[in-house]
Write a structure and sequence with these properties.
The chain contains 7 helices and 11 strands.
Length: 293
């Protein structure tokens, strides 16, 4: 009987030791896993990953599958860069991920901050989130939505685009900008001092800007179409109008030396460039009142 009791105690002890060993192996495995997760992702790897992503974003015909693999959560409207982003700083957060802070400079004056969070998911090094890649930063939607109180601007790109779509903010701003541009054009008044003699038409055209808005040299298209006695167009000349400030006028010279020009028509329109659209949007943002629908 004593031998049986002794054998049971020995077996129990062996079992306990096995359980302790398995527990210890498990603990070591967990520690090893987190150590691998933390230390296999280095600052250099994070920098290389960010630069690879920035290169992808400068491609006009990007490899969407490659981008999606590198940034799995990327399913919102994004801007395609015309220049590489410059990495300014790299830091590691409490989760072991790297935060990349960069600058995108499409021109000599304008700079946009861009940030990425790079970490590991499913044993892959990926971009987990970002700020500054959303098109909202570049088409004034961010500032418009902040002014209305629809978001704070602290949201990451994915959160930002969800709010934009939910509140229909981009369409609202685009429609408002189109209506305001048409209003600005309607408030351009045209007068001319053109004379037709012996088939020649000469003189000048004056444009008066009745808007509280400054137009640059390339914002206004002005031309004169010339017609013969049968109302057939014979030629068209561009009128050079310099900068046109708010509530002011400017004059351009016209000289048509083609024979048979009997009549003319002055045409004026806005040259809707990206720069002009953004300045119109700035005007709207300046006027908008707080209150998101």
């Amino acid at each position: 009987m004593d031998n049986q009791i002794f054998d049971k105690k020995v077996k129990r002890k062996e079992l306990d030791n096995k359980i302790k060993l398995m527990f210890l192996i498990g603990i070591i495995g967990i520690i090893g896993f987190f150590a691998y997760q933390r230390f296999s992702l280095t600052e250099n790897v994070a920098r290389e990953t960010a630069n690879r992503f920035f290169h992808m974003m400068t491609n006009k015909n990007p490899d969407y599958n490659a981008i999606k693999k590198l940034y799995p959560n990327l399913n919102w409207t994004r801007v395609v860069f015309n220049k590489l982003c410059t990495i300014d700083n790299v830091s590691r957060n409490s989760d072991g991920d790297y935060e990349i802070y960069a600058t995108y400079s499409p021109g000599k004056i304008v700079n946009y901050p861009v940030s990425l969070v790079i970490g590991r998911e499913n044993n892959e090094i990926v971009i987990k989130s970002s700020r500054g890649i959303s098109y909202a930063y570049y088409d004034r939607v961010l500032e418009y939505g902040k002014k209305k109180g629809c978001f704070t601007g602290e949201e990451n790109d994915f959160q930002l685009e969800e709010l934009i779509n939910e509140k229909n903010i981009r369409n609202e701003l685009e429609i408002s900008a189109s209506l305001r541009a048409q209003q600005l054009q309607n408030n351009l008044k045209i007068s001319d001092n053109l004379k037709a003699d012996w088939g020649y038409i000469t003189g000048d055209v004056t444009i008066t800007n009745d808007n509280n808005f400054d137009f640059g040299y390339f914002d206004i298209n002005c031309s004169v179409e010339f017609y013969d006695s049968s109302n057939r167009i014979t030629s068209s000349d561009k009128v050079m109008i310099s900068r046109l400030n708010a509530y002011s006028s400017n004059t351009g010279m016209v000289s048509n030396s083609l024979n048979n020009s009997k009549k003319y028509k002055v045409l004026v329109s806005l040259n809707i460039t990206e720069d002009l659209k953004n300045r119109v949007k700035d005007l709207i943002i300046n006027e908008v009142r707080y209150g998101c629908d």
